[in-house]
Amino acid sequence: MELMVYTANAVLPVFVVIFVGLLLNRLNFFSEKTKNEIVKLVFYVGTPCLIFHNISTSDIHQSFDGKFFLFTLALILVLIGVVIAMCFFIQDKKKKGAVIQLAYRSNFAIAGMPIAVNLLDGAGVTLTAVTLSFVIILYNVSAVIILSYYGVEKKSPGAVILGILKNPLIIGTALGLLFAVFQIPVFPIAEKSIKTLGDIASCMGLIIIGASITLRGFQEDKAYILFASFLRNLFAPAFVLITAALFGWRGNHLMVLAIMSASPAAVNCFAMAKQMGVSAEISAYGISISSVLSVFSIFISVYLIKFFGLA
Question: What protein family is recorded (predicted)?
């Protein structure tokens, strides 16, 4: 019961803020122009600052576990490949790109860290923060590549590479990693300012997701939205945890993977979908539904790990 309460406290506020955005939109608070401008603000300012802050403040040297990090990154790449294969039946490339991103990319930073703080010891929390640094890099690079391929515009390999280098999320990740690895100090005023700007991503990002949800959008894409939720909340955690357990990972390592894989779809899925030409409505609904279902997916994942004595 305590685990369920911890999980609900960490992920349900995500859904509540999305609902506030839905309500505000129903009250005509936002024009389409305003929505698009907020998405740009989240994508180009808020999210890069959030990523930079999360990575630059993590102690990479203290809990660096090369074998575990390489395993985690390889596992995510395999998961992406399996998800792409499972989406073979989706003919519309814009919808396929949205489903794929929702399926593999979890809200590890915003939802996962509070859960880790509540469930793990100090070593486990540090391992989570450092793992997050590497996972964010892979999430963002893979998302740019996938969405560049499935987006509206056809892009050459050179254009995709240039898009990765110019992507604000990649820039925020690279700078954060640079500051963390070389332990470059960030002045307190600057750190607080960056953190405040990063809060835009977790607050305004969720509100604009809710404001973009329409009943018509759900009816048109119901099958894809539910399939994406199944992949995010059931298939991904099952695949990750079974594979990790078979490879012998136990304790904090397995718990970190459980939190990472069972967390709801990343809030950034919506902003990236909107900016890169894949279905924003599927992304909005997928984030909303997975935020609710993740209460159960995280609870079941952690419970089973404890039940079988794996941590």
Answer: Belongs to the auxin efflux carrier (TC 2.A.69) family.
User: What pLDDT sits at residue 91?
Assistant: 93
Cβ neighbours for 90, distance < 8 A, ≥ 6 positions apart? 96, 99, 224
Could you give the CA distance from residue 112 to residue 124 in angstroms, rounded to a whole number?
12
Q: Are 68 and 74 in contact (CB under 8 A)?
A: no
Q: Would you state the structure tokens that stand for residue 277, as one six-digit string?
A: 């030409």
pLDDT means per 10 residues, the chain with 311 residues, are 69 80 90 88 87 80 83 97 96 95 88 77 82 85 88 70 79 87 90 91 82 78 95 97 96 94 88 88 90 85 88 82
Q: Which amino acid is at 121?
A: D
> Residues for the chain: how many in total?
311
CATH class, domain 2-307, is mainly alpha
The answer to whether residues 203 and 220 touch, using CB atoms and an 8 Å cutoff, is no
Q: Answer left, alpha or beta for residue 203, where phi above 0 means left and psi between -120 and 50 means alpha.
A: alpha
Question: H or E segment at 256?
Answer: helix 251-262
Residue type, 165: L
| Residue 2, burial from CB neighbour count under 10 angstroms (0-12, 13-18, 19+) | exposed
At CA 101, angle to CA 177 and CA 5, rounded to 5?
80
DSSP-assigned letter for residue 232: I
Query: Read out DSSP for 32-44?
Result: HHHHHHHHHHIII
